[in-house]
Amino acid sequence: MTRIGYARVSSADQGLDIQTGKLKAEGCEIIRSEKVSGASRVGRTELATIIEFLRPGDEMVVTRLDRLGRDTRDVLNVIHDCEQRQASVMVLDPLVSTRGEMGHIVLTVLGMVAQMERRFIKERQREGIEQARAQGRYKGGKRRLDRDQIRQLSLGGLTNSAIAQQMGCSRMQVYRVLTKHDPIDL
């Protein structure tokens, strides 16, 4: 049996050291980590690699359930994918494993709690933004693109692809600016 650790943080400025330290202390022979949102499985290549690598009897270990995901369906799908490979999932805090039937029930409930917590966080954030707007303290996020420059480059004859490459953004962002579908410009 191989114990494979999975560590994840949501943003690039967060550290993985605490999680990887706990996973090493737990005896994980392999530890994969990534800095990506847990809101969905999109873009989580390290998690996909672990699931693909799992062999019968292996165990994927995470420090907390929310490291697998913030959506109950995603968490249950990850667990299901592991079990399809005849492997198990262990969460260290609280200590729960899918090796037993009770573990499935506990992980389902914990997944639901993680999803509910995410919804509460978003709601509090939305309320805070509305309150700050009402008080005139919130001006919105910092613009990352110079929209006037994009429009000038387009008028100069550059293609959307060339503009995107020059500006360091996607063609879709250029398209949104040029067609006035940019949410900030509405």
TrEMBL record:
The active site is at 10 (o-(5'-phospho-dna)-serine intermediate). GO terms for biological process: DNA integration. Gene3D superfamilies: Homeodomain-like, Resolvase, N-terminal catalytic domain. SMART domains: Resolvase. It comes from the Bacteria. GO terms for molecular function: DNA binding; DNA strand exchange activity. The keyword Chloroplast does not apply. It holds the Pfam family Resolvase. Residues 2-136 form the Resolvase/invertase-type recombinase catalytic domain. PROSITE patterns: RECOMBINASES_1, RECOMBINASES_2, RECOMBINASES_3. CDD domains: SR_ResInv (cd03768). SUPFAM superfamilies: Homeodomain-like (SSF46689), Resolvase-like (SSF53041). Keywords: DNA integration, DNA recombination, DNA-binding. Belongs to the site-specific recombinase resolvase family. This is Resolvase. The lineage of its organism: Bacteria, Pseudomonadati, Pseudomonadota, Alphaproteobacteria, Hyphomicrobiales.
